[in-house]
Every structure is written in structure tokens, then in C-alpha cells.
TrEMBL record:
Organism encoding this protein: Noviherbaspirillum album
Pfam families reported for this sequence: Plug (PF07715), TonB_dep_Rec_b-barrel (PF00593)
The protein's name: TonB-dependent receptor
Motif (TonB box): 40-46
Protein family membership: Belongs to the TonB-dependent receptor family.
Domain of life: Bacteria
Membrane topology of this protein: Multi-pass membrane protein
Keywords noted in UniProt: Cell outer membrane, Ion transport, Membrane, Receptor, Signal, TonB box, Transmembrane, Transmembrane beta strand, Transport
InterPro entries to which the protein is assigned, alphabetical: Beta-barrel_TonB (IPR000531), Beta-barrel_TonB_sf (IPR036942), Plug_dom (IPR012910), Plug_dom_sf (IPR037066), TonB-dep_rcpt-like (IPR039426), TonB_box_CS (IPR010916)
UniProt domain TonB-dependent receptor plug: residue ranges: 60-158
Signal peptide stretch: 1-33
Length: 621
């Protein structure tokens, strides 16, 4: 068995109705505008804190308040609510999951946890099921090619996950919940700061009996329940040695045990371990010069037990990063970055027991002159396996008013083949080449403190795209698992719309993505990606009660590169609520898939039916 992330693809429900709904949000009166709240900050786009309204890259920030209000139990479900995001999953929570950004594949996105890069060098992409939502304080999604900032694989974007940081007096938190499918959750933590020392610790346990991952007709169908059990912990500690000089360490550890279906008679199981640790020193060397050195390591380990035996796929990534930021001309910023990254694989499949390293240097410049914003960056990655790759980007933005701005950008990217793409027996082709991307986009953004609107058009052209096929067109007889191979060219173009506004006690939010993810060599739609998908949500806060509902929809997709296995469109309705029962105490609940919709994110794999989760939470605010 090849351990790999499932391909992901959604489908559409009522795109016209959704477009009209978003249109109505966009035309709502700006009379609801109020004095601006404290401006939010984005770290991921330029690897340094930046006011969100000055970030030229298209981005979304998911705050801790939004995470708590949503009542979501998994990270992929939380991401599914965002514009430009599609997901797929081969069963319930705990099974293999994929996240697609603006039509790009799961492997074409970089995932960071507190600045530490995570992912599998064999299957590619992050282990989404193994990243527990209970440990997450904040998420940033930056769309578009960011190879100049993060190197290989940042073709569709970067998702960075932040765990809790300590600040102020000691603040304990505790939460417990129970739900359908015998689902249980318990989490606790404490955070704070004192005399320059900041600390935060969290631990959690999640488990569920689940439901059958597969349905009749699937290979290896087994009607048993496929549940999961996850124990996780995270922590951050930092010490201010002197003004402008800080050292710190952060970590996350997750142990996930889950069941899946690969045999009709055997209880197939997988144990996945995800761990990150990073140590850093941040120093203000001169009034205009800040230096940050980080040493980090991540591990993505999967041990699978099936009827045919036990398999191991274990990726370790070690990275050293030195970043220097210089303030120039009062408002501009020059960045110089040097990095070294090493990937090592240990596996029961001996052909995968390999390593590779990448040495990188990069420079970036951000300019601010009145209403004008601009940024330029260039990077060279010298890979021990594929040689040298240079990427670059150029962006420009203009403030049309205090609330409205326009921006445009061009950028290049690349993705290195995974070890499975190259070496897995009966599947990999050693001559596969890195993918290369060229992206251009333009966007309009409006934010007045109460309402936000965005419209972004993009064209991402990919050459030497790597696709997987069950029957290998290169030499079918030699590849019993099919193969991964380079196609000439693919084009992913689209329009992504987002809107949110507050009126009275109500908050209305909507997204709509219209995209055309196409393999231009064959003219077929890229697997598991829809041409239309979106969301519509409305919630109301009144005193101690907050309640709301959301609709998530997607158009039809195809489960394969040949577009023979169609996945129908779907629309699901969810409800959520929370109530403050006492100071710092609240109860919360979420009713997912209210209409008990039967739909597929991957062919012949089940999703949860109508289900309920309720709990109680204590936390000092």
C-alpha cells in the first residue's frame, strides 16, 4: 500500500443563488461603518509582522474567537469554511485528508506550525488528520506562489498554524464535550507571562467510535466502525533577556490512532505521530536591524497495519533559518534570508530510504510611499537532487481610499517530486522533474472596520505538472500501482469572492469561488476540484447567547484524472451556538449536516451524517 494523502475535490450546489447572496452583501450600505478596530497583523506573507491592510498577497486570518465560535472539531472542517479552500477526506475525522488552495493540489502548499515546516517527503503534503484543532490558537492562509519566501511546494499558497502564546496573568482554560458516534473531547491549558518570561501549555484528548470509512462498492469495503483516538500537547516558552533580545522554544506533539478500510475481513489501523520543535533567538542588533535565527525539526511518522503486514513511512525535516530585516528610508523593509533544510525518510520500503537537502538564499524588499505599496523578492534553492531553482515575485498596490485598495502581482514557484513520485516500486519514475508555476493575479479589497469585501482574479500556469494515474501511460506493464508522471501543462484560473459585514447584532459572511482547474494537455478537469464552491453564514449575538448557521456547497468534481468517475455536487447545512452561563463559563453546541445529506468527497468513501456535539468551556477572557 502507498501511504498518501487522498486527492481532494468538492462540487457545487446552487451557484447562481450564492452569487446573488454575495452580491447583496457587497451592495449593503456602508452606513454600518464604524471607527476601525485595532488592525490585525499577518506574519506569514512576508515572514515578519505586517498590518493586514498593507499585505499585498491575498490572505485570510482565522482568529481564536472565530475558532471557538464555529464549534468545529477538526482543522480541515474549519478550513473548508474559508474562500479558496476545498477539502477531501477518505472517511471521518482521523482518516487521510487533503486541502486544496485555489485549485492547486494538497502537495502544492506549504504548511507551517509556529514557523516549523511539516509534511511527508513520501506522500507529499501535511498530515491534516494529525494536526489537532484543540492545540490551535490562530491560522493564517496566504494564497498564491510564495516560493520566494518558503522555497519548494509553495505553489498554491502557505497555511501557517499558531499555537497559544502567553500574555498577562496566569489564565487557565478547560473544555469537555461529547457527541454523536460516541465522540469525546477533553482539553486543558494555562498561559501567562511574568518578568519577561512568557509561557503557554496545552494538552488534549479526542476520541470517537466513528462510522464505516467506505461504502459498498469500494475496494476493501468493511462495514465496521472506523474510529480514532488522539492525544496531543503543545507549548511555547520565551524569555526577554534584555530589551529587543528574546530567546524561545515551541513544540507540538500529536499521537493519532485511527482505523480505515483496506480489507473486508481485517481491522486495518494506522498510527500517526506528528511532532515539531523549534528554538529561536530574536535580536534587535541596531535600531534598524532585527535578526532572527531559528533551528527546528519536524517528524511525520505513519505505521500502518493491514492484512498484508506492517508498513512504516517516517519523514524527518531539519531546518536552520537566519532572517535579517532592515528598516530603510523610514518605512521600507529589506530582508535577507539564508536557510538549510534536510529531508530524511525511513521506511519498510527500502527504495524510499533516502535523504536530500536544500540550501537557500533570498532577498525581499517592501516599499511604502503614501498610497503606493510595492514588494519584490527573489530566491535561489540549491537542491542536492534537482540542482538550482530560482523564483521571484513582484507586487504593487494602491490605496484608492482609506478603506479601498487594489493590488496586482506576478510570481513563480516550483514543487519537487515526492520520494513516492520518484522511487516507490511499481509507481515512481526516477526521471520525473519538478513542477514549475507562473502566477498572475489582481484584486480589490475593501475594509472599513465593520465590513470586508474582496474580489481576486488569478491565472496559475503549471508546467511539468505531476499527476497520478491508475494505469500508467508510460509503460503500463511495469507499474502495477499506476504511476506519477509529468504532463505538459495545466492552467488553474478563477475568481474568488469574499464578503463579511455586521449589522446590529448580526454578522453575515459569504464566499464564492469560480475556477477552472484544467489539465491543458488533455483538456480534462483536475481531479477532485470543483468549478464552483462557496459558503454562506449568518450568526447573531444577543447578550449571553451567540447562535448561527452556515451552508457549504460545491459543484461536481471527478475522482480521477480521466474524468470518468463523477462526484456529484452537494450542499450541507450546519448550526452552532454558545451561551455564557456564568463568568468565564460557557456551554456550546454544534449540529452538523442538519439535513443528513449523503455526499462524497472521495469516491466510495462515507462522510458523517446528521451529528451533534455539545460541551462546556472555562476560560478567562
Amino acid at each position: 500500500m502507498i501511504y498518501s494523502d487522498s486527492l481532494g475535490r468538492p462540487a457545487a450546489g446552487k451557484p447562481l443563488a450564492m452569487a446573488l447572496a454575495i452580491g447583496s452583501v457587497f451592495t449593503m450600505s456602508a452606513a454600518f461603518a464604524q471607527d476601525k478596530k485595532l488592525e490585525s497583523v499577518v506574519v506569514t506573507a512576508n515572514r515578519t509582522p505586517q498590518i493586514a491592510t498593507e499585505v499585498l498577497n491575498d490572505n485570510v486570518v482565522i482568529t481564536s474567537e472565530e475558532i471557538a465560535r464555529s464549534g468545529r472539531r477538526s482543522l480541515v472542517d474549519l478550513l473548508q469554511r474559508q474562500r479558496g479552500v476545498e477539502i477531501t477526506r477518505t472517511g471521518g475525522p482521523g482518516t487521510n485528508s487533503s486541502v486544496f488552495l485555489r485549485g492547486t493540489d494538497n502537495k502544492q502548499n506549504v504548511v507551517l506550525i509556529d514557523g516549523v515546516r511539516v509534511g511527508s517527503a513520501t506522500s507529499g503534503g501535511a498530515n491534516w488528520a494529525g494536526i489537532p484543532l484543540s492545540q490551535i490558537d490562530r491560522v493564517e492562509i496566504v494564497y498564491g506562489p510564495l516560493s520566494t519566501m518558503y522555497g519548494a511546494d509553495a505553489v498554491g499558497g502557505v497555511i501557517q498554524i499558531f499555537t497559544k502564546k502567553g500574555d498577562g496573568p496566569a489564565a487557565p482554560t478547560v473544555s469537555a464535550g461529547i457527541g454523536t458516534y460516541r465522540t469525546y473531547n477533553l482539553e486543558a491549558g494555562v498561559s501567562g507571562s511574568s518578568n519577561g518570561f512568557r509561557y503557554a501549555l496545552r494538552a488534549a484528548h479526542d476520541e470517537s467510535d466513528g462510522f464505516s470509512a467506505t461504502r459498498r462498492g469500494a475496494t476493501g469495503f468493511n462495514a465496521d466502525r472506523d474510529g480514532y483516538d488522539n492525544d496531543s500537547a503543545s507549548g511555547q516558552f520565551s524569555l526577554e533577556l534584555a530589551k529587543g533580545h528574546e530567546i524561545g522554544v515551541n513544540f507540538l506533539h500529536s499521537d493519532l490512532k485511527s482505523q480505515f478500510d483496506n480489507s473486508a475481513t481485517f481491522d486495518d489501523r494506522i498510527k500517526q505521530k506528528l511532532s515539531t520543535i523549534g528554538a529561536y533567538s530574536k535580536n534587535q542588533l541596531l535600531p534598524n536591524w532585527t535578526s532572527q535565527l531559528q533551528v527546528s525539526q519536524s517528524q511525520d511518522e505513519a505505521v500502518t497495519d493491514t492484512r498484508t503486514g506492517r508498513t512504516l513511512f517516517d519523514t524527518t525535516q531539519q531546518q536552520v533559518s537566519w532572517q535579517n530585516s532592515f528598516t530603510v528610508a523610514g518605512t521600507d523593509v529589506l530582508q535577507l534570508i539564508a536557510e538549510h533544510r534536510r529531508e530524511e525518510v525511513e521506511s519498510t520500503t527500502s527504495a524510499l530510504n533516502r535523504s536530500r537537502s536544500t540550501d537557500s538564499i533570498a532577498a525581499a524588499y517592501q516599499l511604502k510611499r503614501g498610497a503606493h505599496l510595492a514588494a519584490a523578492s527573489i530566491r535561489n534553492d540549491d537542491n542536492s537532487q534537482f540542482g538550482s531553482h530560482t523564483t521571484g515575485s513582484l507586487s504593487y498596490g494602491y490605496r484608492l481610499s482609506s478603506a479601498l485598495r487594489a493590488s496586482a502581482s506576478i510570481g513563480t514557484s516550483y514543487r519537487a517530486p515526492t520520494f513516492n513520485d520518484l522511487y516507490f516500486p511499481g509507481f515512481g519514475i526516477a526521471s520525473n522533474q519538478p513542477e514549475k508555476g507562473r502566477n498572475a493575479e489582481a484584486g480589490l479589497y475593501y475594509e472599513d472596520g465593520r465590513s470586508t469585501y474582496s474580489a481576486v482574479y488569478y491565472r496559475n500556469r503549471l508546467s511539468d505538472l505531476l499527476v497520478s494515474a491508475p494505469v500508467c501511460p508510460v509503460n503500463p506493464a511495469a507499474f502495477r500501482f499506476g504511476c506519477a508522471y509529468n504532463v505538459n501543462e495545466a492552467l488553474i484560473s478563477g475568481l474568488t469572492l469574499g464578503a463579511s459585514t455586521a449589522f446590529g447584532n448580526y454578522n453575515l459572511r459569504a464566499t464564492l469561488d469560480l475556477q477552472d482547474p484544467k489539465d491543458e494537455t488533455t483538456g480534462r478537469q483536475l481531479a477532485r476540484r470543483a468549478k464552483r464552491h462557496g459558503t454562506l453564514a449568518l450568526d447573531r449575538s444577543a447578550g449571553k447567547l451567540t447562535a448561527g448557521g452556515e451552508v457549504i456547497f460545491s459543484g461536481e468534481r471527478f475522482d480521477d484524472t480521466n474524468n470518468r468517475n463523477r462526484l456529484g455536487g452537494y450542499g450541507i447545512v450546519n448550526l452552532y451556538a454558545s451561551y455564557d452561563v456564568a463568568t468565564n463559563w460557557s456551554i456550546f453546541g454544534r449540529w452538523n449536516n442538519v439535513l443528513d445529506k449523503d455526499y462524497e468527497l472521495a469516491r466510495n468513501y462515507n462522510n458523517a451524517g446528521s451529528n451533534l456535539f455539545v460541551g462546556i468551556r472555562y476560560g478567562i477572557r
